[in-house]
Recover the amino acids of this structure.
């Protein structure tokens, strides 16, 4: 498993391909939102797909699921069906042959019981301390 500092990785990526301010805000909010809620998001994903331990899900699939779950349960800026469609498209582009079906199934279940999972995430967030980002990725 590769452990890159998310702030450094984001800063380097943005240096190579700058984003307009609105996209930059969205990108940073998504990255840091997922980092803040990662353990709770993983617990929700694990509950939906118990036969696939989260640490054994392909990293690209795991991170696609985390991002879409965050958008659906916390962010509310992106309509849930759009978040799912975008996640499925990312899985088709970057995942394995079965990734898109897996991502669609997990996120479909998440959406069907969104209130339950949002409450679970909120309860976990109330008990946790947010991670401290190492530097501002935009600088």
């Amino acid at each position: 498993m590769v452990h890159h500092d998310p702030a450094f990785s984001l800063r380097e990526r943005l240096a190579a391909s700058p984003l307009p301010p609105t996209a930059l805000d969205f990108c940073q909010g998504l990255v840091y939102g997922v980092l803040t809620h990662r353990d709770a998001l993983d617990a929700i994903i694990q509950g939906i797909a118990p036969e696939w331990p989260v640490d054994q899900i392909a990293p690209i699939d795991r991170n696609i699921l985390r991002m879409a779950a965050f958008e659906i349960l916390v962010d509310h800026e992106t309509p849930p069906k759009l978040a799912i469609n975008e996640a499925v498209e990312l899985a088709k582009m970057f995942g394995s042959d079965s990734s898109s079906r897996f991502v669609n199934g997990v996120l479909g279940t998440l959406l069907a019981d969104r209130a339950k999972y949002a409450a679970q995430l909120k309860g976990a967030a109330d008990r946790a301390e947010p991670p401290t980002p190492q530097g501002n990725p935009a600088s």
Observations:
- Helices lie at 6-16, 21-48, 59-75, 80-94, 99-112, 114-127.
